[in-house]
Design a protein that fits this description.
alpha/beta; 15 strands; 5-stranded mixed beta sheet; 6-stranded mixed beta sheet; about 290 residues; globular
């Protein structure tokens, strides 16, 4: 394994995905990508064993390489300590030095591992090899079961943690997620849907459902206006499952932003699920690291 190869790792609430990234070409070796389910309610020892087992499998047991890990928070990413508690996942890791535990399981120095919030890694990936490449200031959103937000200045992305931003007497995530679409469809029709993908399928026979996407566009534009004024980005990148329906709401979002004199380009992620893997690996791209 050459020095130009870095292992990117994406850890979610119920899975771990890992793949090798060729840093010079900024591409994933797609044949190397592996995914495994994780019981996040398990013991710390079993969780670490599952993670390290997949990492060894991806690297063919040659783990003497640099590793970037995208990890949900709350978390001390510099020291590697988990503070996840009360979220029904990874409770057994609370207060533990995850970086040291993983390094010990792999038999490598802890300083061979770098960690960042998963939302930050999404935007870092888009900066490294995607829709935000070439921009100095950007913001990113992942919209799906929840909303992840990140902002970047001088190519370094960090979690913006705006999911709890006040909106309509509630919080933004409750208006910018799958559950909002499910709830709004039920309010209008009295029927149930699983997700936005099913809603899109129903549009073919019931065009009036476009009103749901128009309402969503208003909510997203309001949220983005706040985010833009806070970060002054040159570009906005949107990912997550709901971005797959972006043709149904992005034109209206841009029109609503134009009404308040905001014309920042909004781009759909062109990396999809690979953005986080590329972003976690990009933690080792010294060209993106801040000058110390």
């Amino acid at each position: 394994m050459t020095d130009s190869i870095v292992l990117g790792v994406d850890i979610g609430g119920s899975h771990i995905t890992a793949g090798l990234v060729e840093m010079e070409t900024r591409t994933i070796l797609t044949d190397s990508i592996k995914r495994r389910k994780v019981n996040s309610a398990d013991s710390a020892e079993n969780i670490i064993a599952t993670w390290s087992g997949l990492i060894k499998e991806v690297t063919s047991s040659n783990v003497n390489t640099r590793i970037g890990i995208a990890m949900p928070g709350p978390f001390d990413y510099e020291l590697g300590i988990s503070y996840i508690k009360g979220l029904e996942k990874y409770e057994s890791l609370y207060g533990r030095n995850v970086k040291s535990l993983v390094a010990e399981a792999l038999g490598i120095p802890a300083n061979h591992i770098r960690l960042k919030n998963d939302a930050g890694c999404f935007l870092q990936g888009e900066i490294f090899a995607g829709s935000a490449r070439g921009y100095k200031r950007s913001i990113g959103l992942t919209i799906g079961t929840g909303i992840g937000t990140a902002s970047a200045k001088d190519n370094m992305a960090d979690d913006a943690a705006l999911w709890k931003t006040p909106m309509h007497g509630d919080i933004a995530e409750n208006f910018l997620s799958t559950r909002w679409f499910v709830k709004r469809y039920n309010q209008l029709t009295g029927k149930e849907i699983r997700d936005v993908k099913q809603l899109c399928e129903l549009l073919e026979t019931n065009p009036s459902l476009h009103t749901i996407f128009n309402e969503f566009a208003v909510n997203l534009a309001d949220f983005l206006a706040f985010f833009i004024h806070q970060e002054n980005p040159e570009v906005i990148v949107i990912g997550g499952n709901i971005s797959n329906a972006s043709d149904l709401f992005l034109p209206a979002v841009q029109a609503n932003l134009a009404k308040v004199s905001l014309s920042i380009p909004i781009k759909k992620s062109n990396l999809g699920e690979h953005a986080v893997l590329l972003g976690s690996a990009a933690l080792w791209n010294e060209q993106l690291q801040p000058v110390k």
